[in-house]
Design goal:
By secondary structure, the chain is an alpha+beta fold. It has a single domain, classed as OB fold (Dihydrolipoamide Acetyltransferase, E2P). 23% of the residues lie in helices and 33% in strands. The protein is built from 3 helices and 6 strands; from the N terminus they run H-E-E-E-H-E-E-E-H. It has a 5-stranded mixed barrel. The N and C termini lie far apart (41 Å). The N terminus and C terminus are likely disordered.
Protein backbone atom coordinates (compact mmCIF):
# COMPACT_ATOMS: atom_id res chain seq x y z
CA UNK A 1 0.00 0.00 0.00
CA UNK A 2 2.84 2.39 0.85
CA UNK A 3 4.43 1.68 -2.53
CA UNK A 4 1.22 2.59 -4.37
CA UNK A 5 0.90 5.79 -2.35
CA UNK A 6 4.53 6.65 -3.15
CA UNK A 7 3.94 6.27 -6.92
CA UNK A 8 0.77 8.37 -6.75
CA UNK A 9 2.66 11.17 -4.98
CA UNK A 10 5.52 11.02 -7.51
CA UNK A 11 3.04 11.05 -10.40
CA UNK A 12 1.20 14.07 -8.98
CA UNK A 13 4.46 15.91 -8.38
CA UNK A 14 5.68 15.24 -11.94
CA UNK A 15 2.49 16.53 -13.57
CA UNK A 16 3.43 20.22 -13.51
CA UNK A 17 6.91 19.51 -14.89
CA UNK A 18 5.54 17.41 -17.74
CA UNK A 19 2.85 20.00 -18.48
CA UNK A 20 5.39 22.82 -18.53
CA UNK A 21 6.59 21.86 -21.99
CA UNK A 22 3.05 21.99 -23.38
CA UNK A 23 2.52 25.48 -21.92
CA UNK A 24 5.38 26.77 -24.06
CA UNK A 25 3.89 25.72 -27.40
CA UNK A 26 2.56 29.13 -28.58
CA UNK A 27 5.98 30.74 -29.15
CA UNK A 28 6.90 31.01 -32.81
CA UNK A 29 9.78 32.64 -34.66
CA UNK A 30 7.43 35.17 -36.26
CA UNK A 31 6.20 36.48 -32.88
CA UNK A 32 7.45 40.04 -32.28
CA UNK A 33 10.75 40.13 -30.38
CA UNK A 34 10.91 42.44 -27.36
CA UNK A 35 13.51 43.62 -24.86
CA UNK A 36 12.41 44.70 -21.38
CA UNK A 37 14.23 46.05 -18.35
CA UNK A 38 12.69 46.56 -14.95
CA UNK A 39 12.16 45.26 -11.45
CA UNK A 40 10.53 41.93 -10.59
CA UNK A 41 7.24 42.57 -8.81
CA UNK A 42 6.41 38.89 -8.16
CA UNK A 43 7.51 35.35 -9.03
CA UNK A 44 4.63 32.89 -9.41
CA UNK A 45 3.45 29.70 -11.13
CA UNK A 46 0.88 29.47 -13.91
CA UNK A 47 -2.24 27.92 -12.34
CA UNK A 48 -2.46 24.17 -12.93
CA UNK A 49 0.76 24.02 -14.95
CA UNK A 50 3.61 24.65 -12.53
CA UNK A 51 5.32 26.94 -15.04
CA UNK A 52 7.17 29.82 -13.36
CA UNK A 53 6.58 33.36 -14.51
CA UNK A 54 7.51 36.78 -13.24
CA UNK A 55 5.50 39.96 -13.10
CA UNK A 56 7.70 42.80 -14.27
CA UNK A 57 7.04 46.38 -13.20
CA UNK A 58 6.95 48.58 -16.27
CA UNK A 59 6.13 52.21 -16.96
CA UNK A 60 2.68 51.46 -18.40
CA UNK A 61 1.46 48.35 -16.59
CA UNK A 62 2.80 45.09 -15.14
CA UNK A 63 3.95 42.55 -17.74
CA UNK A 64 3.74 38.78 -17.25
CA UNK A 65 6.94 37.09 -18.45
CA UNK A 66 6.73 33.31 -18.87
CA UNK A 67 10.06 31.69 -18.01
CA UNK A 68 9.78 27.97 -18.74
CA UNK A 69 10.48 24.62 -17.17
CA UNK A 70 10.89 24.69 -13.38
CA UNK A 71 13.36 21.81 -13.64
CA UNK A 72 15.47 23.69 -16.21
CA UNK A 73 15.64 26.76 -13.93
CA UNK A 74 16.52 24.67 -10.87
CA UNK A 75 19.22 22.66 -12.66
CA UNK A 76 20.94 25.93 -13.55
CA UNK A 77 20.56 27.49 -10.11
CA UNK A 78 18.43 30.30 -11.52
CA UNK A 79 16.20 31.74 -8.80
CA UNK A 80 14.81 35.21 -9.56
CA UNK A 81 13.36 37.09 -6.59
CA UNK A 82 10.91 39.96 -6.19
CA UNK A 83 12.71 43.30 -6.05
CA UNK A 84 15.58 42.20 -8.32
CA UNK A 85 16.45 44.23 -11.40
CA UNK A 86 16.15 42.19 -14.58
CA UNK A 87 16.71 42.38 -18.34
CA UNK A 88 14.58 40.21 -20.59
CA UNK A 89 14.72 39.33 -24.27
CA UNK A 90 11.73 37.42 -25.53
CA UNK A 91 8.72 36.97 -27.77
CA UNK A 92 5.43 38.87 -27.39
CA UNK A 93 2.51 36.43 -27.57
CA UNK A 94 -0.83 38.02 -26.75
CA UNK A 95 -0.45 39.96 -23.51
CA UNK A 96 2.47 37.80 -22.32
CA UNK A 97 6.17 37.75 -23.07
CA UNK A 98 7.89 34.36 -23.40
CA UNK A 99 11.48 34.90 -22.28
CA UNK A 100 14.29 33.75 -24.56
CA UNK A 101 16.98 35.06 -22.19
CA UNK A 102 16.85 36.57 -18.72
CA UNK A 103 19.64 38.52 -17.00
CA UNK A 104 19.65 39.21 -13.27
CA UNK A 105 21.51 42.52 -13.37
CA UNK A 106 22.92 42.59 -9.80
CA UNK A 107 24.24 39.02 -10.10
CA UNK A 108 25.41 39.51 -13.70
CA UNK A 109 23.82 36.11 -14.39
CA UNK A 110 22.13 35.32 -17.72
CA UNK A 111 20.06 32.26 -18.52
CA UNK A 112 19.16 31.33 -22.10
CA UNK A 113 15.68 29.75 -22.20
CA UNK A 114 14.76 29.58 -25.90
CA UNK A 115 16.58 29.66 -29.21
CA UNK A 116 16.06 32.35 -31.87
CA UNK A 117 13.05 30.45 -33.23
CA UNK A 118 11.39 30.37 -29.80
CA UNK A 119 12.02 26.66 -29.17
CA UNK A 120 12.55 25.83 -25.48
CA UNK A 121 16.11 24.68 -24.79
CA UNK A 122 14.95 22.24 -22.10
CA UNK A 123 12.84 20.17 -24.51
CA UNK A 124 15.59 18.89 -26.78
CA UNK A 125 14.30 19.76 -30.24
CA UNK A 126 16.78 20.96 -32.85
CA UNK A 127 19.26 22.13 -30.21
CA UNK A 128 19.99 18.73 -28.69
CA UNK A 129 18.83 16.51 -31.53
CA UNK A 130 15.56 15.46 -29.93
CA UNK A 131 12.37 14.94 -31.89
CA UNK A 132 10.17 16.75 -29.38
CA UNK A 133 7.03 15.67 -27.52
CA UNK A 134 8.06 11.99 -27.55
CA UNK A 135 6.39 11.16 -30.85
CA UNK A 136 9.45 9.68 -32.53
CA UNK A 137 10.33 9.95 -36.23
CA UNK A 138 7.61 10.98 -38.65
Amino acid sequence: MKLVLYFVIVWLAAGPVIGAEQAMAPVTADAPKVELTGVIEAVQLLPGQGVPYITLKSEKRPVRVILGSMRYLMERGFNPKAGAEIQIKGFKVGDDVYASSVTLTAENKTLQLRDDAGRPLWSGGAVRGGRGKGRGAR
